[in-house]
Specification:
The chain is of the alpha/beta class. The chain has 3 domains: about 80 residues, SRP54, nucleotide-binding domain (Four Helix Bundle (Hemerythrin (Met), subunit A), Up-down Bundle), CATH 1.20.120; about 190 residues, 3-Layer(aba) Sandwich (Rossmann fold); about 140 residues, Signal recognition particle, SRP54 subunit, M-domain (434 Repressor (Amino-terminal Domain)), CATH 1.10.260.30. The protein has 21 helices and 8 strands. Strands 3-2-4-1-5-6-7-8 form an 8-stranded mixed sheet, sandwiched between helices. α2 runs antiparallel to α3, α3 runs antiparallel to α5 and α20 packs across α21.
Length: about 475
């Protein structure tokens, strides 16, 4: 998301920050390019006008022109205003600060990903927040809609309200709230019906459910790929129903991001969640300051660390740490590392959160980073016997041919994997020998054999060990 906008703004501010001093015309030219970049990103015209006017007013002030780093000052002004437009630096997660069971009503058009998002929120609340969640489908019109939520509930390990044929949405909502109170649930998520477009019958049905359940959160699920149509839908729902938050879906497929930048400004409703894929854990809290950092190529280390904390199995991590302390690192360990990388969004997902990556696009393109390489390497390791994974040195020519055939790869791919594993294993042995004190005295040069702090072959170089199998 925001890929095209980030590219354009990186170019604009890259040129600006290289100048030792700025004139009013330099700032005016930069603001013209920012305006074009925002329009190309499908941001609503009134939002673009207000944004550029506000930034220009601050950026042409004498404090900026006389600043030691005027270009950086302009970037900071744009960053701060982006945060403001996106919703401020406050927390934007789902609000559960209400007596249990807390009702959350999900609304939106048909096909926006409402039912899937309901399952994702339930999964998140159950696993991250340790809440007891009940889901209920109020969609009696779309064929198999209630069965779809039931299947999602089974996949997520979350309870769904039993289906009773013939009940209307208000009766289902009443039954869900009663069941939640009697059975001690913390949260009830009500998945309302959608339509291909907003109509009076849809609004009246949602209003009736809202009156009956008095939801603490009314979440609109909007498809980011629909651009300004999503903004229009949000405004219509908010004017009629009164939204408390917005969840944007298919964010991973939207390179422009105009809907996100326009929604808060047009409706005043906070963006709270982003859907980044089909899997149940592919849901992120929308942090305005972190998104602004990503747009301006500053990275998002905090989200990367949080994602790692959520996906890492603590027991497995402790086992791995104990093995590494002894200098042991076999192909089973490498397989675990590859799976962990994939859970965190693959190389592309991780790189998108690192600062300065936008400026390295040419180098990354030449390195040909391919997330499919991780899956190929996992396939190669899976084609090995347990004995081969524990003792890679026994893998000779005939075994390599069998492994390559079994994984649908080539012997060359198998050789590359074995070489990368050997380099990593050697590194782990050095770490075990040096220990903490040795590493502190000798620095990275001691670890990498005096190669100036670089692993054998360099990062991503010929035979380089970083990322394991990520560079092809």
């Amino acid at each position: 998301m925001f890929e095209s906008l980030s590219d354009r703004l990186s170019d604009v501010f890259g040129r600006l920050t290289k100048k030792g001093a700025l004139t009013d015309s330099d700032v005016a030219e930069a603001m013209r390019e920012v305006r074009l970049a925002l329009l190309e990103a499908d941001v609503a015209l009134p939002v673009v006008k207000d944004f550029v006017a506000a930034v220009k007013e601050k950026a042409i002030g004498q404090d900026v022109i006389r600043s030691v780093t005027p270009g950086q000052m302009v970037v900071k002004i744009v960053h701060d205003h982006l945060v403001e437009v996106l919703g401020g630096a406050g927390d934007s997660d789902i609000d559960l600060n209400a007596p249990a069971p807390v009702p959350i009503m999900m609304v939106g058009l048909q096909g926006s990903g409402k039912t899937t998002t309901t399952g994702k929120i339930a999964y998140r609340l159950t696993n991250r927040d340790k809440k007891k969640v009940l889901m209920a489908s109020l969609d009696t019109r779309r064929p198999a809609a209630q069965e779809q939520l039931k299947v999602l509930g089974e996949q997520a390990g979350v309870a769904t309200l039993p289906i009773i044929a013939g009940q209307n949405p208000v009766d289902i909502a009443k039954r869900a709230m009663t069941a939640a109170k009697l059975q001690g649930y913390d949260v009830v998520i009500l998945d309302t019906a959608g339509r291909l477009h907003i109509d009076e019958a849809l609004m009246q049905e949602i209003e009736a459910v809202k009156r009956e359940t008095n939801p603490h959160e009314v979440m609109l699920v909007a498809d980011s790929l629909t651009g300004q149509d999503a903004v229009t839908v949000a405004k219509q729902f908010h004017d009629r129903i009164g939204l408390t938050g917005i969840a944007l879906t298919r964010v991973d497929g939207d390179g422009r991001g105009g809907a996100a930048l326009s929604m808060r400004a047009v409706t005043g409703v906070p963006l709270k969640l982003m859907g980044l894929g089909e899997k149940l854990d592919a849901l992120e809290v929308f942090h305005a300051d972190r998104i602004a950092n990503r747009i301006l190529g500053m990275g998002d280390i905090v989200s990367l660390v949080e994602k790692a904390a959520e996906t890492i199995d603590q027991q497995e991590a402790e086992k791995m740490a104990a093995k590494l302390a002894k200098g042991k690192f076999d192909l089973d360990d490498l397989s675990q590392q590859l799976k962990q990388m994939r859970k965190m969004g693959g190389m592309q997902g991780m790189l998108a959160m690192l600062p300065g990556v936008a400026k390295m696009k040419d180098q990354l393109a030449k390195a040909n980073i391919d997330d499919k390489a991780i899956k190929r390497q996992e396939a190669i390791i899976s084609s090995m016997t347990p004995k081969e994974r524990k003792n890679p040195q026994i893998i000779q020519a005939k075994r390599k041919i069998r492994i390559a055939n079994g994984s649908g790869t080539s012997v060359q791919d198998v050789n590359k994997l074995l070489k990368q594993h050997q380099q990593m294993a050697d590194m782990m042995k050095r770490m075990a020998k040096l220990g903490k004190k040795g590493l502190m005295r000798g620095g990275l040069g001691a670890l990498f054999g005096g190669s100036g702090g670089m692993p054998p072959g360099g990062f991503g170089g010929p035979g380089g060990g970083f990322p394991p199998g990520g560079l092809k």
